[in-house]
Amino acid sequence: MKQLYLENLPELPFNVTEALNQLRISLGFSGENIQTVMVTSSTPNEGKSFVTMELWKMMAEIGSRTALIDCDMRNSVMGDTVGFRTNDDLVGIVHYLAGKADLKDIVYATNIPNAYLIPVSTNVPNPTVLLEGKRFQEIIDVCKEEFDFVLIDTPPLGSVADALNIAPKTDGSLLVIRSGETPKKVVENSINLLRRTGAPLLGVVLNRADTSKNGNQYYYNRYYQYGYYNNESYYGKK
């Protein structure tokens, strides 16, 4: 299998790591049949890719073979965020969906044990036709056979329809919301859109929340913070 090295993996403070761990555990409560999970947001810059990558790393670190499929084919930020390095030419999901590569050419083992990645190596302006083709379903089916969990990072719901094409092919979705920034009506619209796909909405991740009780706003604004809502329960509250 081809190798991909991630050169810029951040060290997170304890409270952020613990909140992510609670998110991982809470996601496990969604059911034994939940294997493929789409992560999306309503608008750009809500932190969905960061949440996806950190959840992917954590699942792998506890011993679960976990694949991350980058489906933000219009504007992927993963390569810039974590610094991809490979000894070969980077071949990604667009090449496979366009029939220019085999599946074995786009699945990379990483320097994180048990963590595998299908990257975006070339952005495309309109991947709708690629997502609606049978080759995308083949990626999902093969990954479900090969891995314990599959996380799929998608573009925001309010920008393009890509996530709505992907959601029905998964076991459920997570919606990332930036605390204090995303309007309630926008969130409600995103939830309604996801429900119409027929795939379960597994929960909502509240990102960048100021959870301090002593007004220490500066500290919490430096890092992403997480809350997890599922069936009106809140996990990760500080």
Could you please describe the fold and organization of this structure?
By secondary structure, the protein is an alpha/beta fold. The chain has a single domain (13-72, 124-235), classed as 3-Layer(aba) Sandwich (Rossmann fold), CATH 3.40.50.300. Helices cover 34% and strands 22% of the residues. An eleven-stranded mixed β-sheet has the order 4-1-5-6-3-7-2-8-9-10-11, sandwiched between helices. Helix 1 (14-28) crosses helix 2. It is globular and about 45 Å long. 42% of the residues are buried. Residues 214-238 have low confidence and may be disordered.
Quickly list its features.
34% helix; 238 residues; alpha/beta; Rossmann fold; eleven-stranded mixed β-sheet; disordered C terminus
Question: Summarize this, please?
Answer:
The chain has helices spanning 14-28, 48-61, 78-82, 93-97, 128-132, 134-146, 162-166, 184-196, 217-221, and strands at residues 2-6, 36-41, 66-70, 84-85, 108-110, 115-118, 149-153, 172-178, 201-207, 226-230, 233-235. With 238 residues, the chain is α/β, with parallel strands linked by helices. The chain has a single domain (13-72, 124-235), classed as P-loop containing nucleotide triphosphate hydrolases (Rossmann fold, 3-Layer(aba) Sandwich), CATH 3.40.50.
